[in-house]
Amino acid sequence: MSDGRAFQDGYPEDVAHCYGCGRLNEAGIQLKSYWDGDETVARYTPRPEHTAIPGYVYGGLVASLIDCHGTGSAAAAGSRVAGVDEASEPLLRYVTASLQVDYLAPTPMGVELEVRGVIEQVKGRKVVVEETVSAGDAVVARGRVVAVQMPQTMTPAEGPVETRLR
Ligand SMILES: CCCCC/C=C\C/C=C\C/C=C\C/C=C\CCCC(=O)SCCNC(=O)CCNC(=O)[C@H](O)C(C)(C)COP(=O)(O)OP(=O)(O)OC[C@H]1O[C@@H](n2cnc3c(N)ncnc32)[C@H](O)[C@@H]1OP(=O)(O)O
Questions:
Q1: Residue 105: what are its φ and ψ, rounded to 5°?
Q2: pTM
Q3: Distance CA 98, CA 128 (A)
Q4: 149 CA distance to ligand 1 centroid (A)?
Q5: Residue 140 CA to ligand 1 centre (angstroms)
Q6: Which of 4, 62, 57 has the alpha carbon at shortest distance from 32?
Q7: Pairing state of beta strands 94-103 and 33-36?
Q8: Atom of ligand 1 nearest to the CA of 12
Q9: How many Å apart are CA 84 and CA 106, to the nearest integer?
Q10: pLDDT tens digits for range 119-165
């Protein structure tokens, strides 16, 4: 967002429960993504429960970071191309159509990870984001997300949040 808030801070309440990026999901990762020039960036330090083997991060967590940084980047990039005022209007809603991950090196625990996104394509309802995950100077994973604007038929479940999270 151009006002210093993370992309995910602009998600309306009905789509703010995602395990990876929902600010209202207290058990989740609550990933925060931002513009950094033409690229996007998010930082996250894995928690002990994200362990694969002692000392190393579970690959599913790395995939989640790529997933949610990708959809957040897509929401920001697609909205920018559509002329949505990111500071005052909600971002367009995107979901993951495709998530590809290559694990290049073991990901150490106890280190802040940096996820970087490059917007490869914005075409119609689709945005393609190329990503890297780094631990210090080492690129530990590469990923690619194809995000597509949520179809109108994919509506959030009704009812109290506790019910929806169960
Ligand atoms: C009003 C205020 C809104 C404010 C919101 C603010 C921000 C919100 C941003 C995001 C918030 C939304 C949710 C946040 C929560 C979680 C996000 C985390 C990510 C997830 O956890 S989310 C869950 C997992 N996710 C799914 O549950 C999706 C299930 N799935 C489907 O719902 C459909 O499958 C769908 C919609 C994906 C596509 O269906 P569709 O019919 O709309 O697509 P269609 O055929 O029209 O394709 C259009 C173009 O996408 C290409 N394309 C399609 N599929 C592809 C694939 N697999 N690989 C490569 N390209 C693909 C086509 O090739 C074509 O490209 P082209 O135009 O170039 O030919």
A1: -155, 155
A2: 0.92
A3: 9
A4: 5
A5: 26
A6: 4
A7: unpaired
A8: 4
A9: 39
A10: 999 999 999 999 999 999 999 999 999 999 998 777 777 765 554 54
